[in-house]
Amino acid sequence: MNRRLFFQTAMAAGVSVATTTSQPLRAALSPPAASGRPGLFTPLTLRGVTLRNRIAMSPMCQYSSEDGFANQWHFAHHAARAIGGAGLLLAEATAVTPAGRITPNCLGIWKDEHVAALRPWTEFVQQHGAVPGIQLAHAGVKASRHRPFHPTPNAFVPLDAGGWLPVGPSAKRYGSDGPVPHALTIAEIEAIRDQFVAAAQRALAAGFRVIELHFAHGYLGHSFLSPLMNERQDEYGGGFDQRVKFLIDTARAVRKAMPDTVPLFVRLSCTDWVEGGWRIEDSVEATRRIAQEGVDLIDCSSGGASRKAEIPVGPGYQVPLAERIRRETGVPTGAVGLITDPQQADAIIADGRADLVLLGRELLRDPHWPHRAWAALKPDVPAPIAREYAWALPETRR
Ligand SMILES: Cc1cc2nc3c(=O)[nH]c(=O)nc-3n(C[C@H](O)[C@H](O)[C@H](O)COP(=O)(O)O)c2cc1C
User: Fold this and answer.
1) What is the pLDDT of residues 154-204, one digit of tens each?
2) Which of 63, 174, 219, 236 is catalytic?
3) Side-chain-side CA neighbours of residue 318 (13 Å)
């Protein structure tokens, strides 16, 4: 499979700093490193949380839960990347309600019983110098699909085989199979907003110290924003002000339920890459509005609303989105997408194009990528690797 096709398949499958008040406690953009410029290994402080470096693991579905519960796989997946030196580990899209799962095997946080299984994971991550974060999500019209390693990957799971009816802003399918989704009523939309709040409270109880709201990739949040998916003509659809209402309401309600010390991120699909769709200009304006609600960082992804999108996939192809939002709003951003090389990642930070880089597949290939980047860049900070390994590695002695 070529890179572009792989990415589109992943996307199809499931592909800022403030207080509870309107006054953002914005982190100083780009605090300087010893060299005078920030770099990949310059710590980043957002509210009460300091990341040891600017390397984050991008949220990546593991499709390995039963009834939403975390298990040893999730522990090992995150523990390895904490040992490997990343600053922030964002847990995969975690469903705020069972109907918000992409697949029956998605991680969930819709009931209090989920919390205890998450704690050993967050404790280990934190003990080894990384910050545990979580992406809260609702799959919307892309729900009830088979996981990518099922014999019929991404196919709709029939209702009589454990599937469920997807919901969205409009009764409009994303793909060609599966039933027509249910168009949410206003009371149902408000209930989902409240499920995000309850999920955030459970996430905090489970020990997560960064919360990200998933408003990208054609899932429920993004589907309200994008005119390609939202055909409502009421307070949640029509013009820009109506399409951003679910985002603003959810960000406001979640922020209100969080302590001032905990950063709130939002992942946006900053452009739909389709004429007539959501545009980067819309993301800039939406960022200004949610920063006022206490959102601390925009995690800048793209696509997922339409199969017609022409995505210019290539190294760092979404970095310009993060750069523009940061420049035009002053809100910190995260850059993601085909960032694989230490010099490339360092330059994104040093050139002021983003405040954080998020790595997905490269951290699947190599959990120790941060350590390798440290060896390549030779920053004036200790090696980001557990002491149990560091003492045995000559390059960590400086
Ligand atoms: C296996 C896999 C699972 C993913 N799951 C999620 C997810 O849960 N939430 C999300 O926002 N993006 C998800 N993505 C997208 C990644 O977070 C990331 O944005 C994308 O892979 C581009 O970064 P990369 O080129 O470094 O892999 C997933 C990607 C992969 C490869």
Assistant:
1) 999 999 999 999 999 999 999 889 999 999 999 999 999 999 999 999 999
2) 219
3) 26
Q: What ligand 1 atom has the least distance to the C-alpha of 217?
A: 11
Q: Evaluate: CB of 57 within 6 angstroms of ligand 1.
A: no
Which residue CA neighbors atom 7 of ligand 1 most closely?
Answer: 60
Domain map (residue ranges) of the chain: 33-386
CA distances 276 to 107, 133, 221, 298, 361, Å, are 33, 34, 18, 23, 30
Which amino acid, 276?
A: G
219 given a catalytic annotation: yes
Q: How many CB atoms lie within 10 A of CB 21?
A: 13
Q: Which atom of ligand 1 is nearest to the CA of 148?
A: 1
Helix %, strand %, coil % of the chain (to 5): 35, 15, 50
Q: Which CATH number fits domain 33-386: 3.20.20.70, 3.40.50.300, 3.40.30.10, 3.20.20.140?
A: 3.20.20.70
**Cα(3)–Cα(153) distance, integer angstroms:** 18
| 355 Cβ closer than 6 Å to some ligand 1 atom | no
205's tokens: 């109880």
Give the integer Cα–Cα distance in Å for 398 and 385.
14
Specify whether the CB–CB gap between 224 and 263 falls below 8 A: no
Q: What is the pLDDT of residues 297-349, one digit of tens each?
A: 999 999 999 999 999 999 999 999 999 999 999 999 999 999 999 999 999 99
